[in-house]
Amino acid sequence: MFRNYNHRLKGPSRTLRKQMTDAEQLLWSHLRGKQLLGLQFHRQKPLGPYIVDFFAAAAQLVIEVDGSQHLQEELCNVDAARDAYLKEQGLMVLRFDNRQVLVETTAVLEEIFRVCQQRANPLCPPFNKGGT
């Protein structure tokens, strides 16, 4: 479990939850309420010095939904440093752009499902049909 919590980011994360983009709102509608593999996702979650768009602790997964401004070189460098920090903490970062989430929603959800299935601890052992 990620333990490096910055209390100063609590207010800004609340503000970001109230100002989610259309793409973030759409993705949240599919992740909230443990809809995906029974995993609890948090939105606009403070992790260390950053606020990530979505976080699933059980899968140690961060999901970022980026606008077109993230294509600018300066923000690409900021994103790379952020991703490196999160990876050092043992987290995997998936990045999608707004258009992917809005237009290719099923493909985005399938990728998130695939990664979560691989990374999350199973809630119960798989059923063994052979009886062994």
TrEMBL record:
Residues 10-116 form the DUF559 domain. InterPro entries: DUF559 (IPR007569), Endonuclease_DUF559_bact (IPR047216), Restrct_endonuc-II-like (IPR011335). Pfam families: DUF559. CDD domains: Endonuclease_DUF559. SUPFAM superfamilies: Restriction endonuclease-like. This is DUF559 domain-containing protein. It comes from the Bacteria.
